[in-house]
Design goal:
The complex is a heterodimer of chains A (about 500) and B (about 350). Chain A has one domain. Helix content of chain A is about 75%, strand content about 0%. Chain A contains 22 helices and 4 strands. The longest helix of chain A has about 35 residues. Chain B has about 350 residues and is α/β, with parallel strands linked by helices. Chain B has 2 domains: about 180 residues, 3-Layer(aba) Sandwich (D-Maltodextrin-Binding Protein, domain 2), CATH 3.40.190.150; about 120 residues, Periplasmic binding protein-like II (D-Maltodextrin-Binding Protein, domain 2, 3-Layer(aba) Sandwich), CATH 3.40.190.10. Helix content of chain B is about 40%, strand content about 15%. The radius of gyration of chain B is 23 Å and the shape is elongated. The N and C termini of chain B lie far apart (about 70 Å). The chains are: A mainly alpha (about 500), B alpha/beta (about 350).
Chain lengths: ~500, ~350
Amino acid sequence: MSLILETLVGFFSVQVLFALLAGVAVGIIGGGLPGISPSMTIALLLPISLYLPTTVAIALLMGAYQGAMFGGSVSAILINTPGTASAAATTLDGYKMALNGQAGKALLMALYASCTGGIIGTIILLAMAKPLSAVTLKFGPPEYFGLMLLSLALIAGISGRSLLKGIISASIGLLFATVGMDPIYGSKRFTFGNINLGDGIQTLSIFIGLFALAEVLSQLSKGKADLYQKPSTLTVNDKLSFAEYWSQKSNMIISGVMGALIGVLPGIGGSTACFVAYAEAQRRSKHPEKFGTGIIDGVAAPEAANNAVCGGALVPMLTLGIPGDVVTAILVGALIAHGIKPGPLLFIDDIGSVYKVYIALLLSVVGLLIIGRLGIPVFSKIVKLRKAVLLPLIFIICVVGTYSSRANLFDTMMMVGFGALGFILNKNGFPIPPMVIAFVIGTQLETSLRQSLLLSGNNPAIFFTRPISCVLIVGAIVFAAFMVRRNRKMGNKEIVVINDAGEEEVV
Amino acid sequence: MKRSVFTRATALVFALVLALAGCASGGAPASSPAADVPQSQEAAPAQSQEASALPATDFPTKPVEIVVGFSAGGGTHLAAELLTPEAPNFLGQPIQITCKPGAGGAVGATAVATSKADGYTLLYATMSLPISLYMDSVDFSADDFVGVALASDVAPALAVRADAPFDTAEELVEYTKAHPGEFSWGHPGVGSTLHVLGANMLFAMDIVNDVTEIPFAGTSESISAVLGGHIGGAVCFPASLTEQVKAGELKIIGVSSPERIADLPDAPTFIEQGYNATLTSTRGIFAPADTPPEVLAVLDQAFEKIITSEDYARRGETLGEPPVYANAADFDKMYREQCEMIEKLLKEIGLID
């Protein structure tokens, strides 16, 4: 106990607190700019951190980690461009809120949910790091497959009004996920001899194209008058009341716990966690039909989840020395450079360093709250721009963002292609989220399926003889059946739209 | 009116920041060497001291770009960043690292192979360069590059769970011969350096056809699968194994290296157990083949000073990089030999026809 207090006292110096706040600020900016991923932001800070005392360095990096997770939501909400992969789910309701004149409210909700999620993730890390690391190891290829299948089933709920169109959209997403190197044989699939497709289609090109550019195109298609109109956003209530925040408490706690638990598993990543949290919030909700129209529930769920992922991802990193994603891989490097060796011995030999990480993570939530509150009024000015000014800016962001992540113009071209595809799909009532999610999950789903079959000598029984994977797969089937039933019910309300041929059609 | 000015200013700043970010990350976390090390103009490059036979050159007059074919923040990128702090002192110009990841490094290699051969665009490549020559349909050949300097040399190891029923390479061979197909091993992707190095170990033990190979997305996933008992073993670099070995969770069957390595002093090499697997993973700097000899001479001298500097060794140690160096002539020879050997190896272990 005295060691914890001693470590805590070590944090209350000007340098440490400054590093913490600076880390958060850099993180928010890096996370907010598409193409500068959280891992790149932290890679940028790494050389500086090597010259700093250990506590200061840990504060800087943890601050940046939490900051980047929130930063992605800023651009997701304001310009429908997920700044990080983890913020893709936030665009679904966040951007709609901004369109409804509630950008400030959406940003505040995202900030508070991020902070709440950050605390939940840290508590889970604090309380359960050791037992959770044992659970991590229980997850082999068949369990990963079960989990991915369950995620896919849950996410089918976001398919919107037409299950059929949702399934078509998801199938296209799965198809895109097969592009690139075959995960088992290494042969090239659908690359057309183009080396730039060797690693498959870049997630960033898909995200930015389908969300941001498609939205720019559909705004442009609304005609010239709309572009020059002065935005009239000042009439709506743009504040978030405490009652509204409090109404999300169970949503944030459940989403946060889900985010942290998914974060514990190496290699799954924040964007899956956020989509699952979003889909689960919609499934639980009393008014699921309002999701996607711009409600705070749809912002709170993914934002609580993605900051909780931070705490979760640190579990295998600290206890096993196994980084679950690129960010934690860089953090391992930074810790080792400071003489802290993550791994099974860390908790025995060097518990003081573990406390340093815990405290830095917790304090960075406070830092996020402060910097976020200061930044939000500035960020939300963006929505007061006329579209004639804003849309070209977004287009520049799309181009620069997709180029900068791999310094490759091919990714930008792909983004433009996906923008056009997204525009066409939108026009024809095909929902975009199932495609994006299927794409994100597809690679892991296929890889774990085939790894499992390699292990079992092509015997599918492996999925059912192992308890965890069996439960997950059965769960997936139950959820899928539930979704189909609910979709039928919603379908009975008969929403009539005019289709392209000018006929009335029941969707 | 004031409000609208402010709005426009915000928009402008936002756009500027983005444009800057784009440029900055094009030069990837180049960590602005200028900020780390004061630009010392007096320490002019030491060209034309020995290279009297070569025409005089004022190279370099602008920053030199080094392309890394792997993601920013990854091991290869961080190792390449070791070159930047001392560059202004010894090269006379900063080095800028650009990450162009994709296709196991082949995207970055293609960019350098097709760039202007003036010494301002170099490649920092791993053994995946010779591997991609034979395993991928790439648009460059071995002769498109010349070696400039060896910067890193790391030995891979085969690790298994501590409770595995075998302790040595010989026992593993006996076990696999008795239970064909039962021992599964993981590596971070088909055609990755560790895949080829691992296949080489199993080939040397003559059990490559009696084991099951499971590709993973990365080293973390494969170590995690070994610890959880889902697969039998994994081929990794020592940096990701040492803590688990110390904690008694994993044990090392063998290290592919001519001699025992500092990180795992108790782990036997394959060669001392009688299996001929000594292949290690080298990393180094390459230039396009048509780069003028006088420019190459400047680079050769500069990289010798950078890589053998104390600062480089000190920083490299934190990344688990043992101090190694070979000059342009030796490294180029090493590279040609490696190309030949890897083609032969890939054919022998059945990865290519």
